[in-house]
């Protein structure tokens, strides 16, 4: 079962490799998508401080080492990062996005299997991460659209 513990962190490495591959094609958009993952993580840390739910490994045996007290369970940071990464990658590249979605689900499930999160922790984490990342993608798309329209507006004012 050690492979499950290692696999959870390895999936985050897979997301990093996907972002790196997308960097060569999308440059700034890939960077900003990755920044969305950081924002999602920050939001999850705030939620953890508000909710302060103990981890299941505090009361039952787990396959993974139980994090220190004060490292709250809800939402799962691994799941937030996985959900945000999968959504960001999906927005940039649909095929890689589907691969990322499967990896995100596997990462989230592994957190429950190894005993460090409840199911609702990982579901909330996936949803939170995906929504934050999607929201940032929409803002970026709107900003890009307004920049694309800017030359047209300037030209129409000149006429």
Automatic annotation (TrEMBL):
Cellular compartment(s) = Cell membrane
SMART domains to which the protein is assigned, alphabetical? acidPPc
**Which terms are listed as keywords in the entry?**
Cell membrane, Hydrolase, Membrane, Transmembrane, Transmembrane helix
For this UniProt entry, what is the primary localization, expressed as one broad class? Answer: membrane
The record's annotation in InterPro entries points to:
PAP2/HPO, PAP2/HPO_sf
Residue ranges annotated for the Phosphatidic acid phosphatase type 2/haloperoxidase domain, each copy included: 28-137
Q: What Pfam families does the record tag this protein with?
A: PAP2 (PF01569)
Under what name is this protein listed? Answer: Phosphatase PAP2 family protein
Q: Does the keyword Cell inner membrane apply?
A: no
Q: Does the keyword Cell membrane apply?
A: yes
| Topological relation to the membrane, as annotated | Multi-pass membrane protein
| Ranges annotated as spanning the membrane | 6-24, 98-116, 122-140
